[in-house]
Each structure stands twice: as C-alpha cells, then as structure tokens.
Amino acid sequence: MAETKRTIAVIGGTGALGGGLARRWAKAGHKVIIGSREAGKAQEAAEALKGEIGGDIVGMDNGAAAAAAEIVALTVPFSNQRPMLEVIKDGVQGKILIDATVPLVPPKVGRVQLPEEDSAAVRAQAFVGEGVKVVAAFQNIGAEHLNSDHHIECDVLVSGDDIDARDVVVGLVEDAGLKGWHAGPLANSSAAEALTSVLITINRRYKIIGSGIKITGTPGEAA
Ligand SMILES: NC(=O)c1ccc[n+]([C@@H]2O[C@H](COP(=O)([O-])OP(=O)(O)OC[C@H]3O[C@@H](n4cnc5c(N)ncnc54)[C@H](OP(=O)(O)O)[C@@H]3O)[C@@H](O)[C@H]2O)c1
Prior knowledge:
Elements: E1 7-11, H1 16-27, E2 31-36, H2 39-53, E3 57-61, H3 62-68, E4 71-74, H4 81-88, E5 96-99, H5 120-128, E6 133-136, H6 143-146, E7 155-160, H7 163-175, E8 179-182, H8 189-206
Parallel strand pairs: 1-2, 1-4, 2-3, 4-5, 5-6, 7-8
Antiparallel strand pairs: 6-7
The structure holds NADP nicotinamide-adenine-dinucleotide phosphate.
NADP nicotinamide-adenine-dinucleotide phosphate binds at residues 12, 14-18, 36-37, 41, 75-78, 80, 84, 100-102, 104, 138-139, 141-143.
C-alpha cells in the first residue's frame, strides 16, 4: 500500500492508459477520480472498477475531477491534449500535472513526430503556466500491462522541472508497480515521447504486446 494516500484525478480515465493507472493507483490505496467528457460515463467506469477491485473510486466530468484532486494525470490522445488542457487549466493550478501524452500523429504512429515545442509535455507546461508543476511520465508503458495484475518489468522515465514534484511522481510510478527513474528536466520528455514510436515499431516487427524499456546499472555504485 502507498505510504501517503493521495487524491488523484485521471483525465481520460475511461480509456486504456488512464483506466490502467486508475486501477493500479486505487489498488495501492489512493483515492482515484476517473474523469471523462461525460460525468455519467465517468461514474459508470468508476462503479465498474470499484466492483472489480474495491477501493476509493469515483467518477466526474474532467473539469470537476481536476478541481477536486490533489494530483492530476492527463491521459488523452495527443489530438485532444490542448482542448482537455483548456478544460482543466483552472483546476490544476498549484498542483502536479502528470502528462502521459505521446505526440502520435496517425497514420504513421511508428515514426517519431515531435511537436514544434519539442514535446507534448513542454507544450502542456507552456499552456497551463508556471503555477502548475508538469511532470511527464508513463509514455513507454503499454496500457495492457497496467490493466492486468501481473508484475511489470518495464521502467518509467520521469521528467519535470520541479524535483520535489518529480519525486512524488516517481513514488506514484512505484505505487503502480513499476520502477521510476528521475530523468531530468521537462525538456527531456522529448526522449520518452520519441521512444514510444520506436517501441510501437518493435511491437509490430516482433509481435510483442507492449514492449518497454529497462534501465541497467546499480544505483549507488559510482563514487
Ligand atoms: N494506450 C497505451 O498503451 C499508451 C501508452 C503510453 C502512453 N499513451 C498515451 O496516453 C494517452 C491516452 O492513450 P489511450 O490509449 O488511453 O487513449 P484512448 O483510450 O483512445 O483515450 C483515452 C480517453 O480520452 C478521451 N478521448 C478520446 N477521444 C477524445 C476526444 N476527441 N476529445 C477528448 N477526449 C477524448 C476518452 O475519454 P471520454 O470519452 O470518457 O472523455 C478516452 O477514454 C495518449 O496520449 C497516448 O499516446 C498510451
């Protein structure tokens, strides 16, 4: 169980990645607010997940979910990142915003296509302003894994300009059953976002369900 119980809103929590994070965080003992464009859909998803795993889970429309939470995770398609940021902008002020957006541009999702701002997370930070601590994470973990109960071998790169906020998110990665690594400033999110297209290509070539990355080396062994 998590050491500190948080209230986390998952914007787009009715979807694949958000649903998986909601599931894992609720199982770790956090209060989870599933967000959707439709409050009724969010409530249905919350009831279904609660019926399956128990826990403290409710559903709200995205704007209300962001306002009611302590930490907000954004898990919507890249094409909808900006409209959803407009909906949650007021509600996330003063909070940590975890951005899992990958700038995939169909149909060539196996090709790296970063936005002109360098990354989707940097673009999010510019839009919501300095009052929000944007931390980028979870771009390289397949939702299939989060939606299962199996042990996940994949690591998560966590980038953000506020080290304390990054530290909180590294803890939430671990609560979700994964290893999280401090990966530097938010600008470094471009590396994780780009890597997703590489992993999609590997999944297709080798018929893998949700390939991921693993950092090697032993923490503390260097002087
Ligand atoms: N799937 C993965 O394995 C994975 C892994 C790493 C990162 N990601 C990234 O995480 C984000 C979410 O991926 P996903 O696969 O979970 O997406 P998804 O299931 O297709 O969509 C997530 C949610 O976003 C909302 N949404 C869908 N279309 C929308 C629209 N036109 N406008 C506003 N909201 C819309 C929907 O919620 P409501 O209809 O309830 O509003 C939907 O349930 C993406 O940026 C993706 O690149 C995904």
